[in-house]
Amino acid sequence: MSEKSDRSDSVSFPRQIADRIIQAIRLAAQQEILPHFRALQPEQIAQKSDALDLVTTADLASEALITEALSALFPDALIIGEEAVARSPGLLDNIESAPLCFIIDPIDGTWNYANGLATFGVIVAATRFGQPIFGLLYDPLQDDYMIAEQGVEGAGFVASCGAKKTLKTSVGGALKQLNGFIHLYQVPAPKQARLAACLPHFGNMSNLRCSCHEYRLLAQGSFDFCLAGIVKPWDHAAGVLICQKAGGYVKMLDGREYSAAHKDGYLLAACDRATWNRLQELFAFLLTP
Question: pTM (2 decimals)?
Fold first, then answer.
């Protein structure tokens, strides 16, 4: 089989396997995340790159549990967690060549979590040669999740009570009607003022410091777009697929297809292609030197 045809093969997740992935995430939440929420001691919180980039003992323990469960289900898969990458950055170099890779964010929104804010979640994505094929956005506090799989029509939302519904992005509209997420701190300082000057063009701008919940709001039609200047795969791979399956349009700002192997650039997720085009025109200055 040629490399090209091999790369085109799909990887499917039978319902029972997807259920076991969800069970593993729930177990990590029940054992390691929720018991420590608003109960962390100072010595259980550490800085990584700066004061806003935190890691807690709950991050480390939940990532270990999820990694162990995924390794048992998929012994040949590459398993990459955010905290494992913090220790071994070279792990990211293997995503593009991996036929199956799982990417874990054990607690997305760690700063929120460590400061007692309820806006945090767990993200798990599976990729094939860097392309997302499975995505899960889990809210431990509500015990519900959004899920999508390549080759399966649509994206779904499942509540803790078992209720299910199909996700659908918003209908978009003129710039002044759009609600979005823009992260000024992810943009180089010389361009921050110009990006900030764009904010009055829109209806409402926000920043949750939690990709899990930003993508959830985008996929359910509550917000219209998200612009990110840091493209860590654990933040985006699952949300990109869920947004696309819900009817959204997602590409790098320069027009490239998204890949979890990308290490830089701007990612623009929008409710539809027409809205993406309007936003790309407005934000194109970010691509200039």
Answer: 0.95
